[in-house]
Design brief:
This protein is mainly α. The protein has one domain (37-224, 250-469): MFS general substrate transporter like domains (Growth Hormone, Chain: A). Helices cover 74% and strands 0% of the residues. The chain has 20 helices and no strands. The chain crosses the membrane at residues 69-102, 109-129, 135-157, 169-188, 200-220, 260-285, 291-314, 326-347, 353-370, 391-417, 423-443. Residues 1-20 are annotated as: Disordered. Keywords: Membrane, Transmembrane, Transmembrane helix, Transport.
């Protein structure tokens, strides 16, 4: 890994002789690494978790894709869509950190199985809702389970893969799951032509979640804390976790990492998700398409998101190799501007037929798809392994959820006065431009924070080796 010269912190431990350092070969022999020197079963883990995320996404998309028919069935106004979306995110503010805390007590395997799997029973219950109050409550409970994947899956990726690979891995996981979910959008949209079809959708995806809960219990193997770090991966899971214990002092220190705070504000300014929430409804209400046809735009959006994630992951890792301190920042900044431009032509210009919208929604998905493949690795590069769950809980469950809830409620309310086109212009396009400008502040502190983490990991390695050399407990 490329590093710049810096003075490492004083650890209080003398470095152990080089000969005592564990080797990759020894770690493979002991089962702590696979035959290629990677975390065992890490790809299997991500396939299973990706499947559970698809089921989560299917449940969540029922309310957005089929909202016009849900509104007709339950007698709802457009503002109800904003309330549903907001409640789902507000619940995550509490649920995300709670799942992280619970994962430290009973392990990520059980939390993932419960929250992203067996929690699907609440999706089934949502399909039985008879009025808006029931739907709102059950949808909110259902969303609490989805919050677990938002905070724990990035943590699992960071503990399973080295920094040089994280961009492409995040790209494949998030792109693949979003693409499959969006490809299912036309099928979900076709449920609008079936009486009570939206209820059957909730039943199906809720049951699918339960199936993935069983698969997680059967096949998921947790990598342990710090398994993706070059300095720590040759140690056993027990040694790594003993040297990476969470303390309240460490948690408080998380909020002193300047680069992380800048990224938090950037996440608060990420209004692009409103296009996925209100996009289909906008095409129906503003441009006159029927629900089933309008829902088809989510398929190219998902394909674009997949291409953006995968290509963005490769680009993220390449730019990180070219400039470990500035490459990914420039990419993140450019992605915000690109989305604002594409969103403008998608929502502010009227075209004949659905085809132009299919293309433009695909381009919006492409630009939005760049984000996970670059912002997650940026957080991982400056936050210690044991704090990444907490970091993503704040980053996604709290900050993103608060922003999303505000944008959803305000957008739904403003739609009644300025229309959904006006909402898209000011809240989506305008705020995303502000976000890009804000990210200019990240260039200076990121290098310092990244090097501080590298020095900390080096000190932990020296601490473990020193303890082993003297026969001490870590």
């Amino acid at each position: 890994m490329t590093t710049d010269s810096s003075t490492p912190p004083q650890t209080g431990y003398a470095p152990a002789p080089a000969a005592s350092a564990p080797t990759v070969t020894a770690a493979i022999r002991h089962g702590d690494l696979d035959k290629k020197g990677g975390v065992p079963r890490r790809k299997t883990n991500l396939v299973i978790l990706g499947g559970s995320m698809i089921a989560d996404g299917g449940e969540g998309s029922m309310a957005t894709t089929l909202f016009p028919v849900i509104a007709a069935a339950l007698g709802l106004a457009t503002s109800a869509l904003g309330i549903l979306a907001a409640v789902g995110r507000i619940v995550g503010v509490v649920a995300g950190p709670a799942w992280v805390f619970l994962s430290k007590k009973i392990g990520r395997r059980w939390v993932l199985a419960i929250a992203t799997g067996f929690w699907g029973v609440w999706g089934v219950a949502a399909g039985l809702a008879q009025d808006f109050t029931q739907l709102l409550v059950l949808y909110g409970i259902m969303a609490a389970g989805t919050a677990a994947a938002h905070v724990l899956v990035p943590e699992v990726i960071g503990d399973s893969f080295e920094d040089k690979k994280r961009g492409r891995v995040v790209g494949w996981v998030y792109g693949g799951t979003a693409a499959v979910s969006s490809l299912m959008a036309p099928l979900i949209g076709s449920l609008a032509n079936i009486e009570d079809g939206w209820r059957y959708g909730f039943f199906f995806f809720g049951a699918l979640n339960v199936v993935f809960g069983l698969l997680i219990l059967a096949f998921y193997k947790d990598p342990g804390t710090g398994g993706g770090e070059e300095q720590l991966k040759t140690f056993s899971k027990e040694e790594r976790e003993a040297a990476s214990k969470i303390t309240w002092a460490k948690v408080r220190k998380l909020l002193t990492i300047r680069s992380y705070l800048i990224l938090l504000v950037s996440r608060l300014l990420s209004s692009h998700m409103l296009l996925a929430v209100f996009g289909v409804t906008m095409l129906v209400q503003e441009f006159g398409f029927d629900v089933a046809l309008a829902a088809t735009v989510m398929a190219p959006f998902g394909i674009g998101f997949l291409v953006g994630n995968v290509s963005g992951g490769l680009l993220s890792d390449w730019l990180n190799k070219v400039s470990v301190n500035y490459g990914r920042i420039a990419m993140l900044q450019g992605a915000q501007l690109l989305f604002a431009v594409f969103a403008y032509f998608t929502t502010q210009v009227v075209y004949d037929g659905i085809m132009p919208y299919l293309i433009l929604f695909g381009l919006c998905g492409l630009a939005q798809g760049f984000n996970p493949a670059v912002n997650r690795p940026l957080v991982m590069a400056i936050v210690p392994p044991e704090l990444r769950g907490a970091a993503f809980a704040i980053f996604v469950s709290i900050i993103e959820s608060i922003g999303f809830a505000i944008y959803s409620v305000v957008g739904g309310a403003l739609a009644a006065t300025i229309g959904l086109q006006g909402v898209m212009l000011w809240i989506v396009c305008g705020v995303m431009v502000v976000n890009a400008v804000w990210l200019s502040l990240l260039y200076r502190p990121f290098k310092k924070d990244r090097l501080a983490l590298e020095a900390d990991l080096d000190a932990r390695r020296a601490h473990i080796l020193d303890a082993e050399a003297h026969g001490q407990a870590i």
